[in-house]
Amino acid sequence: MDITLKVNGTERRLAVDVRTTLLDALREHLDLTGTKKGCDLGQCGACTVLMDGQRVLSCFTLAVAAEGTEITTIEGLAGEEDPLHPMQQAFLEQDAYQCGYCTPGQIMAAIACVHEGHANSDDEIREYMSGNLCRCGAYPKIVAAVRQAKPLMERA
């Protein structure tokens, strides 16, 4: 099936099988490998991207269902010459990663956490972010990063 996906502000035409997930379309067809394939069962959050500003698990979303939406991946947050997104900067400053595998999904979910109004307390952040797993256990630092980025994101 021929579809057009708007990813990181650019429309891209693809020929995909109707069963192709958004995750596979991003990684295999568009070479956007920042979005990770973790469990491929919708349980770990490594594949989190934003669709029309809301977090979605791209392993659970069919590419054809994403047509007509605005998809943002980790690659779309800041260009090579641009400053980092406030959440990316906060993750760096708070050392909110270890192995880094889950970090793109964590950052995308954290952005949605702030935009959707779920970053008003540490408990609220932890609850919202509970769908994104970190095998290294960087959770306290992830919460600190969300807290740090929130006021900067609200001003932008």
From TrEMBL:
Pfam families (alphabetical): Fer2, Fer2_2
Keywords: 2Fe-2S, Iron, Iron-sulfur, Metal-binding, Oxidoreductase
Source domain of life: Bacteria
GO molecular function, one term: metal ion binding
2Fe-2S ferredoxin-type domain segment(s): 1-77
Entry-linked InterPro entries: 2Fe-2S-bd, 2Fe-2S-bd_dom_sf, 2Fe-2S_ferredoxin-like_sf, 2Fe-2S_ferredoxin-type, 2Fe2S_fd_BS, Aldehyde_Oxdr_Iron-Sulfur, Beta-grasp_dom_sf
Residue ranges crossing the lipid bilayer per the database entry: none
Xref: CDD domains: fer2
Signal peptide: none
PANTHER family, A to Z: OXIDOREDUCTASE WITH IRON-SULFUR SUBUNIT (PTHR45331:SF2), OXIDOREDUCTASE, IRON-SULPHUR BINDING SUBUNIT-RELATED-RELATED (PTHR45331)
Protein's name in the database: Xanthine dehydrogenase YagT iron-sulfur-binding subunit
